[in-house]
Design a protein that fits this description.
about 100 residues, about 15% helix, 1 helix
């Protein structure tokens, strides 16, 4: 499952990447322990609660994809809202959460 966090105005704050081996902490809230699996040029994968998630940039915002594991829609929503708050802050109301996919041709 792939999600996108998109600001209606196209705004993505400057992200402060973590230290080596923890760069993805710019995406992941501090109350979510994680193990970084990979990182390359601003994107990568991390294991959170035994599920592998891929974090990346899209044309319109930030992409988050569940790579491995099964989560309920409520669990995914909880994580996505926490990430939204971590990146944009609690008071920023312009960010929308989308389920993303490719359109069949």
């Amino acid at each position: 499952m792939k999600f996108e966090l998109v600001d209606r105005q196209g705004y993505i704050p400057d992200l402060n990447y973590g230290t080596s081996g923890q760069e993805l902490s710019c995406f992941i809230p501090s109350d979510y322990p994680f193990q970084q699996v990979s990182y390359n040029n601003g994107e990568g994968q991390a294991i959170i609660d035994k599920h592998t998630w891929h974090f990346f940039f899209t044309q319109e915002g930030i992409g988050i994809q569940l790579i491995d594991g099964i989560v309920s829609s409520k669990e995914a929503e909880h994580l996505l809202l926490a990430i939204k708050s971590h990146i944009w802050g609690d008071s920023h109301q312009q960010v929308q959460i989308f389920i993303a996919g490719s359109t069949p041709k």
